[in-house]
Amino acid sequence: MSEAVRQPVLAANWKMFKGPETTRAFLDRFMRLYPAHSDRSVVFFPAAISLSAFLAARSGRDDLEVGIQDVHTEVEGAYTGAVSAAMAAEAKLGWGLAGHSERRRDFGDEDATVGAKLRRLLEAGLRPILCVGETLEERRAGRLEEVLSRQMESVLDGLASSGCGTWHDKVLAYEPVWAIGTGETATPRDAAEAHGLIREVLSRRATDEPAATATILYGGSVKPDNIEALLAAEGVDGVLVGGASLDPDSFAQICLAGSDR
Ligand code: PEP
Q: Which residue puts its alpha carbon closest to atom 8 of ligand 1?
């Protein structure tokens, strides 16, 4: 890790996998493989329908933190199927994702929507993870910096104009779209470059906190066999894991990276 000491965050995005029963079975095994470690944060984003099963099954293991995969831009209302940040806070969750590329691609979440969701998470007292990342076409066209800046500036502008307060302890995830669920992983060098660009954008905008204090995760086909190299890359403070987080053995190995067990 670079600059200030930032506690690594190992996060599992379960997407639309695992109902309540499979969630319990996962935890039963994972908790035997992964004992609590005070030098890292482990965060799970189960499907909304499995959140209460997760909270019940982790009993006594509050080190396994929990978040919501997506929230609505409103606090409450007639929005069938949706969940709000306020409801997530009431359910005692600590984290929320905003801007995951699958939400942007499949549900039409544009930058302004992502910003509104992130504001709701902050208002509700949850810790957002802002996901940013470029498509393959954008990367090939040399637009990496432009895309990352646009995705971040839009959210930061929205926060500034809403007067909703400061986003302390920023957590972002660099997730190149071409590496999500594809088996393609950014090299540690690609990740370091993008994380550096993200930190530059934050530095330009830093009115409140130095960019060095932000935690920046890498996401995109992270597995037990590439975790050590990715965590060793400059500026990589942790990972957001999809596919490999669904298996308790492989996610436990990822969470144990760099520890003496
Ligand atoms: C993700 O969905 O955030 C992700 C990184 O998925 P995967 O690890 O499967 O590429």
A: 242
Tell me what pLDDT residue 46 has: 98
Task: Look at domain 9-255 and name its CATH class.
Answer: alpha beta
Q: Which pLDDT band holds residue 1 (cuts at 50, 70, 90)?
A: very low
What is the average pLDDT score of the chain?
93
3-state SS of the chain is: CCCCCCCCEEEEECCCCCCHHHHHHHHHHHHHHCCCCCCCEEEEECCHHHHHHHHHHCCCCCCEEEEECCCCCCCCCCCCCCCCHHHHHHCCCCEEEECCHHHHHHCCCCHHHHHHHHHHHHHCCCEEEEEECCCHHHHHCCCHHHHHHHHHHHHHHHHHHHCCCCCCCCEEEECCHHHCCCCCCCCHHHHHHHHHHHHHHHHHHCCCCCHHHCEEEEECCCCCCCHHHHHHCCCCCEEEECHHHCCHHHHHHHHCCCCCC
**Residue 180 CA: which ligand 1 atom is closest?**
10
Who lines ligand 1 at CB under 6 A?
A: 13, 175, 180-181, 219-222, 240-244
pLDDT at residue 106 is higher than 50 = yes
CA of 50 to the centre of ligand 1 (A): 19
Q: What is the structure's pLDDT at 133?
A: 97
Mean pLDDT of 216-221: 96
Residues marked active site are found at 100, 175
Ligand 1 pocket mutation pick from 101, 241, 251 by most atoms within 8 angstroms of CB: 241
Nearest protein Cα to ligand 1, atom 3? 242
Query: What number is the average pLDDT over the span 51-73?
Result: 97
Domain layout of the chain by residue ranges: 9-255
